[in-house]
Amino acid sequence: MKPALQGVQRRHRGINPSILALAALAVVCTLLLAVSAISNSFSRVQAARGTAQWIEKFAIVFDAATWISAERGPANSYMAASAQQAVSARQAWQSAKAQTDAALAAVETLGVPARAIEDVRHQLMAGRVLVELNAMKPLERRTPGEVQQAIETMFKAWDRYRSGVMTRWGAAAIEQERLLADVVMKGAAFSDLREYAGRIGSYLIGPMTARVAIPEKNLLAITSLRNQIEQTWQLLAPARLVERVGSEFHDKALDVQRIYLTSGLQLIDEEIENGRTKGQFKRDAATFTQEYVQLMQPLTDLRNGYLESLKRTHENQTRSSTIDLFVDGALAIVLLALVPLFLAIIRIRILRPLLRGVADVIALAEGRKPGTRPKDHPIAEIASLFAAIRILEGRLTERARLTREFEKLSQTDSLTGLLNRRGFEREAHALAEHGPAALIIGDIDHFKEVNDRHGHPVGDRVLAGVASILRQTTGASCRIGRIGGEEFAVLCPGVNVEEATRLAEDIRRSVANHSFPLTETTSLTVSLSLGVAPSTYAGSWTEQVRQADAALYCAKSDGRNCVRVVVAGNAPTSPRDISTAA
Asked: Does the pTM exceed 0.90?
């Protein structure tokens, strides 16, 4: 793509002498000039009509985004409804679902790829199933985590619609008509405002439903969304400022400022203050949802007003262009004289910045940093384009960071903070490239009895405590993982069998000597059985694990709370037999 881009740039560096010659000839050919002027006016009429039609289609595409976002309001109310409220709440949700489905069906008629719509529908279905499952439970059994999972699944439906439908549809429109870039980006930004506002409220629904304190991650998400609303609102400032005071669109912008950005966010702040620590919210989830959705309505009205304003503008342009069609014949000579200047302005003020914008987008697509661009540009549309590219760069950077974090989380056991089986095996294969490593596998003895007698919270504390002992006992070069329910593994690179066995014995003693407090006066002790497979074993990783498991099984069979080791492929032995076996 880069050579093609460079070729386009070379073609815009100069004017072909033959074009200059043809332009000089056109000055003489008044008749041809008149025909050209009339044809150009006619093309403007057609372009204005085409743009108006595109705007009508945009309204359909953006309406579907609004309905997907708005469906979460009734869904949240349904999940928070009591048994007495469930019937009416479910009916409201069913109505919202029908509106969403109808909006998606309308988008399908525009020629959007069916696969993209089906992808959105599948994600919606997944979210709706979770909503229904939560709502079917008694109110007191609905947990914040399960409610939040349903809400975030619905978030993903909107995200897929944003990326799979709105973005692709907008790109196709811009490809046919470059001047639609501003319409697409601003319309999408108005839709984003509505979504961000809806998500802020949704992050309070789970804690409200269970009447628990708002989790810290929810508060962080709300803060991030408020920042995004502020940034997007500032980005849309040119669209708000160009409208004359007293116009319908201007009034709608004032409504957003007065109703949502003031009253709506005050409602959020009030409930956060009430529920930050003890979950003592002023409103229940259903009442909060109803009030908050009403305060968000100006955001939808503003976007619709923006599209209506654009539609009226282009309809006026169509009428104006029709009149100009009859005037352009008389002004053909003057227009021809202005053509070179006009072309130069287009090239310098629009085409060149657009090419820079294309280069920036390609750089982002290839993982490179885009070139430095001025933040201010005399043309609002180009300024918005570069502002959007800067936002895109920031979001891609954030996405890359999140991807790295998700990758780390996918390899970490959430309870103990150790590597999970997947992460541990990945580390083992990585270490294998640098040399052999001894493997220790340990299992907490009679752990099921701990859970049965004292409860799973105590069992979780025992697991976390054993993990802490493993960290304190092993060296910095060792890799530690929780590879099963109560099963742990330690991988020690460059350690011989005697050292690995001593380490296993140290671990066993540390666990056996540790007391896990149950109450102020009682405590609990547990023991570990451990199996060791030495680094000198010449087989594969799978075979080394099998040998360590065999040694662990032998330790269990020999009465537990002991260490058994495999030496040079022999049967598992106790630590005191190592020197003899070797």
From this structure: no
